[in-house]
What we know:
This protein has helices at residues 18-32, 68-81, 125-133, 147-153, 191-201, 217-222, 224-248, 265-273, 276-290, 306-316, 326-342, 362-381, and strands at 5-13, 35-39, 42-45, 55-64, 98-104, 109-110, 115-116, 161-164, 180-185, 205-207, 257-259, 298-303, 348-352. It is an alpha/beta fold.
Amino acid sequence: MKVQHQVILSIGSNQGNRLENVQQCIAMIHRQIGTVVNVSKVYETPAWGFESDAFYNCALVLHTFNSAHKVLTQALKIEKQLGRIRSEEQGYQSRSIDIDLIAYDEEVIATEKLQVPHPLMQNRKFVLLPILDLNLEWEHPILNKSIAELIAVSPDGSVCEIVQELENPLDKINLSQFNYIAFEGNIGAGKTTLATKISEDFNAKTILERFADNPFLPKFYQDQNRYAFPLEMSFLADRYKQLTDDLAQFDLFKDFFVADYHIFKSLIFAKITLAEDEYRLYRNLFDIVYKEMPKPDLYIYLYQNSERLLQNIKKRGRNYEQQIPAEYLDKINSGYLDYIQSQTELNVLIIDVSDKDFVKNQEDYLFVLNTIQQHIMDEKTI
């Protein structure tokens, strides 16, 4: 599973409608590069290093799967889209928009095109003060100082005045009304990746299935008839224990947590894999367990067609999954959809992500978030 990076960007404008330039820039970064999870206030600051109109400056922190060099390339592309024309002349210049990559995690990068952390950040209050607003636990990896400590020793005596607050793009997605969201999907649908990303972006706790630790799984794919029952019983026991242990650590009325499964998946898979007599016994045991488990406030099923699922399974390269037939995936999809149709008291949302890649394409991830938000709004109007 890919890991998201924390990136700090500094934005400035001193030409045209400065506030509108900054707001447009933030929206485009959120749409094209990564998830903007926090935005500073806007500061008006004098031009630094040359005579010109004052700048509007802000900072933001974003989460992205992209490399630092890819982020820089995308930022320069946004500058161009917003009308910035970089001059060949040396020295500082006025500009409609300026995006600087200040930090990438706590890495030190020194190449011909990119230096991170930004080599002059400690000398510029218009960079440091907005970053302080972000309340990050970030320390300069070379100077070994926090942002507050860098401000205290900065030689910059410029006066930077707060102009106004800026809207955080994620504030439009109202997940705060939920305590418990469960993502479900077929094998290879991306539920763990999406659940992890959303929990990071919205500062939620996570419950992730420990499927890789199940000793019966590789054996099951080699001999389904022999290992189906011990596999399903092992999954049920492990899911029950994990959910019981994890949920006991949370306040079910205050904490926000995201899971990449709901225990009912045990019954769905068991119905597909077990013989009729085994399934009857399993169902009796499952019903006892299920009564004790809290139900999610929102249950999201990520639908993908079997062709795309097989591509994803092949890409992630788990040896024991490579021989899974499309027919088995079709049965799982049907089992989930039948279950969803039977649930009258569960808040269910089905999202078709067959043509989406929310790791490589930020707009696909935003499609998922916007679909959830639209579902929330629809529920309120009913």
